[in-house]
## 1
Amino acid sequence: MSLVLTEIKGSTGVITLNHVEKRNALSEALIEGITDALSEFQSQNVRAVILRAQPGVKVWSAGHDVSELPNRGRDPLGWDDPLRILIRAIQEFPAPVIALIEGGVWGGGCEVAMACDILVATPDTTFAITPAKLGVPYNLGGLVTVVNMVPLPVIKEMLFTAQPVPAQQALNLGMINYIKPVEEIEEFVLNMTKQIAANSPLSISVMKESLRLLVGAHAITPELFERTQGLRRVVYDSNDYQEGINAFREKRKPQFTGT
Ligand code: LCV
């Protein structure tokens, strides 16, 4: 069974997450399926990409595959982590990537959706950013992605509570572009890709890349970088980090002690 299904409809590439048994957890293998599809679509000069899960799913993506997170002592979200590679592949793809979202979006799955250029969701969609639930220190690039999406008090609430935010609140905050009923969302998104395909692909790809560079342009001093990396190291070296991973593997609630 393919973890990812791909299709080209006219000038639009469609990627469907297809690992329903594991709630589309972002394993290295599933991520490779997505990045391979993006490479193929780029060679086919598609004008837009739709990233979706199977119609009717309860979970769009359960986020990073926790079973692939390292034990304590190693940065769990380093530059070469598959999730980081996927985020960059979406952000650097030379045409718009539209997230067609149904169901729950968890952890790194939220960042994948937020890395997309346009987000269209069904009413049952929820977004939960969960590093605190697992005891994981999110990385700076990931924080930039999410901070660019919603006001600071809201992203702090999402990060500190790890609770799901419903689609309507996400729409009110400007986190997503539209909410569409299940029976309408696919046609709505396909029509949007047709509008995009009618415009200049060069103009669009240059504006997309320029916006990526602009929103990612944060002056960061070596001291700031080293300080934040040191803070993150305290977390991923901690007992709490290992406890979060162990608790998930043992299907029990974690008991964090702050050590
Ligand atoms: C591996 C999984 C996963 C999974 N990995 O179905 O953002 S950060 O920093 O935290 C980042 C590191 C990150 O993204 O971490 C992951 C954050 N994700 C979560 O906290 C969500 C964890 N999953 C869940 O809470 C539940 O699975 C949801 C609510 C998504 C779905 O619940 P449901 O009852 O429908 P199950 O929990 O029974 O999961 C079905 C199978 O998928 C596996 C899970 O272990 C189970 O496998 P088995 O059938 O082998 O037991 N699975 C789910 N999520 N992130 N594996």
Note: Strands lie at 4-9, 12-17, 48-53, 59-61, 97-101, 104-106, 118-121, 126-128, 165-166, 178-179.
## 2
Amino acid sequence: MTEKAVLTFGDQQIELPIVEGSDGNRAIDISQLLAKTGMTSYDPALGNTAFCKSAITYIDGDKGILRYRGIPIEQFTQHPNFIEVAWLLIFGELPNEEEHIDFRARLTANELLHEDIKDQFQFIPADSPPMAILSATLNNLACIHKEFLEVNSPEGLVGAAARLISKARTIAAFAYRRSMGLPFIYPDPSLRYCANFLHMMFSLPYKQYVVTDEIQDALNLLFILHADHEQNCSTSTVRVVGSSHANLFASCAAGVSALWGPLHGGANVDVVEMLERIYKGGISPEQCIRDAKDKTNPFRLSGFGHRVYRNFDPRAKILKAACDRVLASMNRHDPLLDIARKLEELALNDPYFVERKLYPNVDFYSGIILRAIGIPTNMFTVCFAIGRLPGWIAQWKEQHDDPSSRIVRPRQIYTGEGERNYVPMDQR
Ligand code: ACO
């Protein structure tokens, strides 16, 4: 017998089907609730609501498990290859050799920005936030690549995805160069994805930036660990925008905007600013912990806590180990890493954090690696966005390919005034 949930209210009773995921997790299907009862459900911030079915990313927040298309993220750490993972997320399987070579060739072929887009950078104030530039410029790609405003074939999707993933790093690097008053460095087709990004960021007209294997691996790893995280704030934003059949560029640009917030991707900036403040003596680690616990103080321990993980964020574990490797490979010591470790130790031994199951999240250690690579703090969230793009594209594609998907249109509980009359200006 198929299991059902029974909802009783007043003298009415309705049966609600149970939906089961391939992981055995179950949900009560309330899609007919309004039609059958005249009532909506109330779930602020959607904390209890599965708003789509998805086969891309699996998270077990209690056990600290994260898998892309079934593969545990730990298995991508040995020979990190962001492009391979991007393909896996978007198309469901690891690329075979031919697909891998073809996708890399497409990324190389699309690494330049149209000169009209490049020229726009001159009209943006030099100190503009790079996330604003990234969001605006991703959207503006639609002005140039109009053939991708509608994507209705796998070939079209590969073309649009290659443009977005390839050009995002060029846009990011150009935004940085503009902010520094440095000349733009064009991409070098002989370089791999991450090395090319760093070349555009750090090469000078008279001096080529040379990237080590360790740094390339670290950046690949960082992008991979940010590549998807199922229905988080920015990804659901991409889906909400995409549900209106808005194009992929506009949908991903909206994702960038959502990611910008300090409760989401922007937290990696806050973490390093917090660690720097402690380093400069502005506050002690102990005081930081006290402030985070103080309910009259809006301060939160940045890089700690997660809506889904009630255990260690597996990405934080991998990044913590990667910090040591990267710094060792550069023969460098970063005092901020010591402070981060100290804060972690204090928090993990404090009943406030233990009882609430607050652990370091992906943002806690990512900034240390980015700093070691030489990426300035205001570019951290941009790097997160470059990493997250394949996930947004994969989720947009999954929704687009699903014939049952509808425009997202939540309901509300109205709490405003009852009907009242308009008052003319001279009587107010
Ligand atoms: N510092 C101090 N207290 C915290 C923190 C924190 N970082 N995170 C959560 N809490 C407390 C809350 O105050 C709340 O306490 P209460 O039960 O006494 O009211 C309890 O823990 C539960 O927290 P919620 O706010 O309900 O958790 P929610 O799931 O809504 O928020 C979030 C998750 C936004 C990540 C939150 O933990 C936070 O603000 N963390 C700091 C910012 C951050 O690191 N964001 C990056 C997240 S990862 C990412 O987006 C890529």
Note: The CA atoms of residues 320 and 341 lie 9 Å apart.
